[in-house]
Amino acid sequence: MNRRLTLIAPLGACLLATAALVAQSAAPQQAVDGAYAKFKSLQEGKNADYIPALAKVDPNLFGIALVTIDGKVYTAGDVKTEVSIQSISKVFTMAQVIQEQGLDSIEKRIGVDATGARFNSIIAVEAVKVVQGTGAPEMNPLVNPGAISATSMVKGSSSDEVWKKIIGFHNDAAGRQLNVLQDVYKSESDTNQRNQAIGALMLAYGYIKDNWQQAVDLYTRQCSIGVNAKDLATMAATLAAGGKNPVTGKQVLDNNKVPGVLAVMATAGLYDDSGKWLYHTGLPAKSGVGGGIIAVSPGKFGIAVVSPPLDDAGNSVRAQRAIADISNALGGNPYAAREKAGS
Ligand code: DON
Q1: Which pTM value belongs to this model?
Q2: Mean pLDDT of successive 10-residue segments in the chain (343 residues)?
Q3: From residue 312, how far is each of 48, 83, 298 by CA, in Å?
Q4: Which of 247, 280, 241 has the alpha carbon at shortest distance from 262?
Q5: How many angstroms is it from 183 CA to the middle of ligand 1?
Q6: How far is the CA of 76 from the centre of ligand 1 (A)?
Q7: Is 195 in the pocket of ligand 1 (CB under 6 A)?
């Protein structure tokens, strides 16, 4: 090779490698932008209104974020405006209890089975009470009764101490200090008589050991934590990356505890629509009535969409459509073993 060629060849290789990298990293951005454009004008669904503050949130808010397990962030739309995390917090409080007390703790006290009922069903509690004492209840920590019980399991000598642990765990997963949206907290506290009834019932049946009022209050507070789409995607990516926040590098949850958490999300994350969701995407996911949904492609990426209008099961319409579209474009379905994520 003459001298000119020896100079050009490495340069060419370098350019090719850079082009390949650009092509690789362009795929998630294209997928995110594509879904944003496709679903921006979708008008289906309706904001939750049983918590009055949620009815006032702008239904046009639409933000998408995807965070890969190596910490790359891709976004479209509004990823700054915060909504209340709502039921998505149930995943992280469950994870916190599992981290603190082991995988058995949640399975034995609450169960890891789908109820097939709405998230705030009282009939579902009545239906499982007979198995108490004979084995794991057929319930899970992602429906309100199980979630209030999981919150009651976080150890601490005062409400403040427990709260600091709960918000601390959420902060670590999001990679920043999160705050409670006080208007949502007040609105839900003023109107959560149903959850209070559920808390009292869970004490009566022994799922909660004491102080159900504290458990309901802390649960209401955790549901009122303000998050944007980027926070939620980082939280999802923490689960995708074996419990390590890929942006901050902090190990939030032990790697060997992540599959159990993802399994409950796959079973019950979108409530009675969880099977349908899993059938189409294969992704463990969790919705919140604030309009957020997180989904996890293990070993690949976490994704989140915020869009307040919900369907009848209480899941954001646009979030479901956008996440399914992006994940399918990137080969995110963990059951499709031969497809590669476009990360
Ligand atoms: O307890 C409630 O009803 C709300 N704080 C949370 C419900 C929820 O997000 C259900 N999600 N889809």
Answers
A1: 0.91
A2: 42 39 66 98 97 98 98 98 98 98 95 91 83 73 97 98 98 98 98 98 94 98 98 99 98 98 97 93 98 98 98 96 97 81 53
A3: 10, 20, 28
A4: 241
A5: 16
A6: 26
A7: yes
